[in-house]
Amino acid sequence: MLKHLAQQLAERDAQAMRRRRRVTETACAPQQHISPSDDGGHAIDPDAAPREVLAFCSNDYLGLANHPALIEAWAEGARLYGVGSGASHLISGHSRAHALLEDDLAEMLSPHLPEVRALSFGTGYLANLALLTALGDEHTSIYSDVLNHASLFDGARLAKASAYTYPHHDLAGLERRLAACRTPRKLIVTDGVFSMDGDLARVPELLALAERFDAWIVVDDAHGFGVLGEQGRGVLSHFGLRSERLICMGTLGKAAGVGGAFVAAHRTVIDWLVQSARAYIYTTAAPPAMAHTLRASLRLIRGAEGDRRRQHLGELIGALRSGLPAALGVVPGAPAASGWHLTDSLTAIQPLIVGGSAEALAAAAALEAQGLWVPAIRPPTVPAGSARLRITLSATHSAGDVNRLLAALAVAARTAGAPE
């Protein structure tokens, strides 16, 4: 076994596909301190001085992960409820903090989901496993966009349903599959914002297909909730949609800055998840202090401060996209044949496609040499030939931070061999 695993790791090294962890020493913020680490992410020298970097790699889109109000809310929650839940939700782990958080989330999504209730989870991965395995019985067909998050595919694989994929945004292909479907229940599954490309799902068109073919839609709004739409309600608000056919999953460790996740849907769907979703029933509830903190986060997201942060984030996105052509000669949305290019994204996720895995690693290393941390994303997370620098922006970045990134990218492009 050890010899086999070592050989597999060596092959990943040869293909520039080995994943490595970094050791961070500071709170989640643009200015990070990282320590040298070995291949397993263990500190090589605990006494070595950490290095300061400007990070463009977190999903803390609104910059709330280190917000003083949320730090105080966590301390208050710990004083009220302690630091652990002690059991699953269905035993004794469901605290008043969890119940109030679910009420807040349901109220927030009520303009878009009739008779809505919400169910909280420890992680988004758990939420998607719970949702798809509970709804995907042998009389159901699941249709997933090929670029959906891995947790959605894993949930579909574990379900008893028949599972299919359709090419990215291929609504005509999806329509043909729905027309040929013979199971009594159909479930369309999509990211709201695709995590590696940053583009939005065509949810209005998907909803029209669902209504035509009597299907339901699961929208994984991990990267839209808190950022898009009125008061940060997410992609459903962005498109102005309302339907009982919609089921929304959102994570709370990205724009919300804390952790956990939720599913919001018609009350009957939520009641069924409580009764049948194994990934909900058989896991310890998240700490009540986290739920208490998330209530404070939702108040920030929906208030004037949330509006200001979303506006600033939008300005940073515009500055990056408008400044990159001058810095690199890269045209936003240009085809891969033209060399390095941004995907067609107007969200905080701004992937710069560079092509090969080795080239992406070289570009990331060139940026780090200049004191910037931008991760190289490679297959199998993304399709072969589309390795990229996944640039993510936060409302706590400044315009000067973006200018520094643009200048560093110009140097990295020359170092990594991008076309002139």
Topology:
Elements: H1 2-14, E1 23-24, E2 31-35, E3 51-55, H2 68-81, H3 89-93, H4 96-109, E4 116-121, H5 124-135, E5 140-145, H6 150-158, E6 162-166, H7 171-180, E7 185-191, H8 203-213, E8 216-220, H9 235-239, E9 246-251, E10 261-266, H10 267-276, H11 278-281, H12 288-302, H13 304-328, E11 341-342, E12 349-355, H14 357-369, E13 372-373, E14 376-377, E15 387-392, H15 399-416
Helix pairs in contact: 2-12, 4-12, 5-6, 7-8, 13-15, 14-15
Description:
By secondary structure, the protein is α/β, with parallel strands linked by helices. It has 2 domains: 235 residues, 3-Layer(aba) Sandwich (Aspartate Aminotransferase, domain 2), CATH 3.40.640; 112 residues, Aspartate Aminotransferase, domain 1, CATH 3.90.1150. 42% of the residues lie in helices and 17% in strands. It has 15 helices and 15 strands. A 7-stranded mixed β-sheet has the order 4-10-9-8-7-5-6, sandwiched between helices. Strands 1-2-3-13 form a 4-stranded mixed β-sheet. Strands 11-12-15-14 form a 4-stranded antiparallel β-sheet. Helix 13 runs parallel beside helix 15 and helix 14 crosses helix 15. The radius of gyration is 22 Å and the shape is globular. The model has no long low-confidence stretch (mean pLDDT 93).
